[in-house]
Design a protein that fits this description.
mainly alpha; about 0% strand; 11 helices; MetI-like fold; globular
Length: about 230
């Protein structure tokens, strides 16, 4: 218990004292995960809407792949992204391995299926008659999709939170493709693992508390937006 209290106090001291390394790690964690979440939204929402609204051969198989992707093990994602970005791999000429960009790519692979699957579920749970009513009013296909997404905006915000939560807290893929390089790819999760392996439990607890505070701050903002738009 004393160790937990010491680590928590140390976390606030690191933040309030303006420790440059801690702030650098924190901002890098936030930048990488927010970038991955945004890219996942740009990919996952259109794909989820397409799967929800379009019938085509093999649709159920594709949906099964998306649902499987929602539970991809991060270490497996890290392995395959590393293979593709390795110097002798298909994308090795980009020299992205052990860079923040590689970490964003790995996190997109993790978050995109989550956003896609939850978008698909959000649109499928809407009343089918709503689609017919919108089309009867003369809406175009683009307007139909936009109106349905607006109608499902509350579960879509939950998809954003789930996607962000899935990447900000993962460790396996980030460690494998980023390398935990000081001042370059070290984020809160990888730094926590490193400090724990060194026996610096107070610093590890402090970094964990900072990570939890960061996750809470982002999700509190999204929750406030979600609940403000909730119909009474």
């Amino acid at each position: 218990m004393d160790l937990l209290l010491t680590g928590t106090a140390h976390a606030f001291w690191l933040l309030l004292s303006g420790d440059p390394e801690v702030w650098r790690i924190t901002f890098l964690s936030l930048r990488i995960s927010l970038s991955a979440t945004l890219i996942s939204l740009l990919m996952g929402v259109p794909l989820g809407a397409f799967l929800a609204l379009k019938e085509f051969p093999g649709r159920r198989f594709v949906i099964s792949l998306v649902n499987t992707g929602m539970s991809l093990p991060p270490v497996v994602v890290g392995l395959f992204v590393t293979i593709f970005l390795w110097r002798n791999g298909p994308l090795g000429f980009f020299r992205l391995l052990y860079t923040p960009t590689a970490m964003v790519i790995a996190q997109v692979v993790i978050a995109a299926p989550i956003v896609t699957g939850l978008t698909l579920a959000a649109l499928q749970q809407l009343n089918p008659k709503l689609r017919l009513q919108i089309l009867a009013l003369g809406a175009s296909r683009t307007q139909l999709v936009w109106l349905l997404l607006r109608e499902a905006r509350l579960p879509l915000l939950a998809a954003v939170m789930a996607g962000f939560g899935g990447v900000i807290s993962e460790i396996g893929a980030s460690m494998m493709v980023g390398g935990n390089l000081l001042g370059h790819t070290r984020v809160l999760t990888t730094a926590t693992v490193m400090e724990t392996s060194k026996g610096n439990f107070d610093i590890a607890i402090a970094l964990s508390v900072i990570l939890l505070l960061l996750i809470f701050a982002v999700n509190a903002l999204l929750t406030y937006t979600q609940q403000r738009q909730r119909p009474l």
